[in-house]
User: Fold this.
Amino acid sequence: MRTFEFRLFVNKEQSRLLMACLAESRTIYNDMLETVKAQYEQDGTFPSKYDLEKAFKGQGEHVPATTVQMLADRLTKSLKRFLAAKQNNIPGVGFPRFKKPNRWHSIQLRQYGKDCYLHEDKKHLIVPKKLGHVLKIKLHRPIDQTPKTVHLVLRADGHWYALIVCEAEPSSEHGPGTCEHPAIGIDVGLKSFLTDSEGNTVANPRYYRTSGRTLRRKQRQMCRRKKGSHRQRKAAKNVAKTHLKIKRQRRDHHFKTAKPYADGYGSIVVEDLQITHMVKNHHLSKSILDASWGAFLHILEAKAASAGHQVIRVNPRFTSQKCYQCGKIVQKSLSVRTHVCPFCGYVADRDVNSARNIHKAGAQPSGTKHSNGGVSLRSPRL
Assistant:
């Protein structure tokens, strides 16, 4: 699936209808969750998605019928994820929670073409009359794939956006087996955002760190305001705008970094990092989350798949400690940035040595396909 995001330009009446739908849909979702909890406490079962749709059909003066169906579907999926995580003893997945206003920002429409579609002039989005019917939209790029659903999202900057989810079509240019593009290994890090096996590096922009002074000033300003007052809410929106800007800067950097690698290399070998375990290091957690390696690798896999290429994930064990030339283990701390092998005399930058080891590990013929199109070469634990 691929999502296209476009800015909506709504008037005051349309904005009022959208905000009313947003508030009422949140209330309906919380009522659905209350019904689920009550039935579970009574007989130990959960209502199905169709039972929830039937029970809450027609509720909400400004909520379309398809949005009520999507709310039931959303809650049912959350329950399934919770039950699956509980059965498999997966930590971090809890029971669905009641939604507060500051955690509810989207209106989901079920089917593109029936509930929502573009006007012939390509300047207006047709939505249910309860949501304003005709919304002005800015199509800054063409939609070259098949749209499926639409989400209307209110961002922290106060503007509405239409997220059109499309079905991604696989590339028909060539497959990974017949591709003539070379392979490359990539090592992500903190000193430099990434280093490849050819010796090229991409600087780490550290957007959160560089915006720290601005964010700190705005957060202190918000804390000085009286809790619950209009000025406090205004200051909170100002803080949210700064976070939104950081998020957009980081995402833009990820796309611009991933594009040349996805188009120019047939196989891109990366480490299969367990980031949730790495952020337990409180000295490095903020920098790791600021770099956002997981989001970058997800974008890289999507870009590579659209170009007919593949991303291979390998076991990160000893990639920075092993000598690329002789294969011996050379122990070194994170402060040592140059790899000097006492066995063969090979000298290289620490990250370049690691990227070349990653490239070598990904050159093995065996591999297991991932659901997202990537390949994993992690050795099984004995």
